[in-house]
Amino acid sequence: MLRIADTFVVERPRTVAAALALLDAHGDKARLVAGGTDILVNIKHGLHAPEVLVDLKAIDGLRVVDLEGDVFELGALVAIHDLARHPGVQAALPSLARAAGLIAGPQLRRMGTLGGNICLDTRCVYINQTHFWRDALGYCIKKDGTVCHVTKVGKKCVAAASNDTAPVLWTLGASVRLASPRGVRELALEDFYVNDGEKNTVLAPDEILTHVRVPRPAPTRRMAYQKLRVRDSIDYPMLNLALAFDLDGGVVSNLDVVVSAVAARPRRVKRLPEGPLSAALIDEAAALAHKQVRPLTNINGDVAWRREMVPVLLRRAFAEALGEEAAA
Question: Is 37 left (phi over 0), alpha (psi -120 to 50) or beta?
């Protein structure tokens, strides 16, 4: 146990069972930390005030990258840097490797973890500020206040999901394994998220995300990831888009597009076309994405411009998935 001044203590369990025991003992006074690239900043800004931080980094069993068999298994503590650079991930799950490689900057990728990115707290221009700034504003519905400054009405927080790996893993059919004192449960990643910016996952206070499981993609599966941000390093996404489809004999099927950094959970574009690969098919998919995705003012950047970039990112993703030069 390590005490940090008079603010909180840090516990460093060596097993999942020991970490669960600490969560069970301390309840809502405890928080998990792995890389610390998100929660430590939020603590500094007064968004969290834990009495105990449960540091998971000493649990070696959560760093596995198993790409054998019909289902790949990725440990929650796999570093983002290692995920992006892993030759097996680059070959079998190129969109995931690309998404990981576009997270933040190199220093943060070496610290951050896959599980941490999946569980990344939602972000909003009205919440991710210093305590002084939020106090001057009058706070907001997510922390200490009663008003959503984005919608101006209602009682629901619309802070945005900003994790890069989540939309990719949706299109890959991934699931997550959650451990608690009650046992282990597994659920589809799509079911892991809820549309509530205050807390956008179903993760219980005494649960730990331990592994991510990804079905082995078929040889016909193509995939891509595109990200919009102010700078090509460090920044969170203003918009991101994951694409996956089967291409067999020049025919597109099982087309899947998931867009995020828009609302509290990623959004899947519906009623996408199938058929012979053509410019018309891509245009139809782009038009559907543009129609269904409507960004809010919860993220920096002009709302109209972000929406107009949805079909642009989708076309770039198709080019990336097909190996065309335009993917750059």
Answer: alpha
Under 8 Å between Cβ of 268 and 189: no
Across the chain, which has 328 residues, the per-10-residue mean pLDDT values are: 67 97 95 95 92 95 97 98 98 98 95 98 96 94 93 88 97 98 97 97 97 98 96 89 98 98 97 98 98 95 96 98 66
Number of neighbouring beta carbons within 10 Å of residue 150: 21
Q: Whole-angstrom Cα distance, residue 228 to residue 226?
A: 7
Tokens of 147: 């008003």
| pLDDT tens for each residue of 74-112 | 999 999 999 999 999 999 999 999 999 999 999 999 999
Q: What is the DSSP string of 120-181?
A: PPPB-TTTSS-HHHHHHHT-BTTBB-S--TTTSSSS---PBP--SHHHHHHHTT-EEEEEET
Q: How many helices (H) and strands (E) does the chain have?
A: 12, 14
Question: How far is 56 from 154, CA to CA, in rounded Å?
Answer: 37
What are the C-alpha distances in Å from 112 to residues 36, 142, 246?
7, 24, 31
User: How far out from the chain centre does Cα 256 lie?
Assistant: 17
What is the C-alpha to C-alpha distance for residues 171 and 190, in angstroms, rounded to an integer? Answer: 9
- Taking the C-alpha atoms of residue 227 and residue 318, their distance in angstroms, rounded to an integer, is 13
Structural domains for the chain: 2-57 (3.30.43.10), 60-119+160-215 (3.30.465.10), 221-323 (3.30.390.50)
From residue 241, alpha-carbon distances to 10, 65, 161 in Å are: 36, 24, 12
DSSP 3-state of 31? strand
- Mind listing the pLDDT tens digit for each residue in 296-313? 999 999 999 999 999 999
